[in-house]
Amino acid sequence: QLQLVESGGGLVQPGGSLRLSCAASGDNLDYYTIGWFRQAPGKEREGVSCLSTSGRSTTYADAVEGRFTISRDSAKNTVSLQMNTLKPEDTAVYFCAARQYIGCSPSALAYNDWGQGTQVTVSS
Fold it and tell me: How high is the pLDDT of residue 57?
């Protein structure tokens, strides 16, 4: 059974950077499409980025386009989210999620396996 663990969150000032990692066990992440989602207090979970199994589809939410980059490291069985030029509105718990299909979906309902989340706080 696939298990996912996020890491790399923390406190950072506006304009700073963080790199989040999603480490998998129990299965090979190469078989899965991986999405990153975030949820701020009092708000619904929203899609941030996605990387398909084929690599032909990489998506970003408008709010993070040009600042965040998703990538896969097959040798380490991880997917990372590099976050640059962070803004206070990026503050949220960030989750990675997996679906065993080729294509990306912006909906959290399309993903079967989830990590526990990692807190990202952007504040002066």
Answer: 87
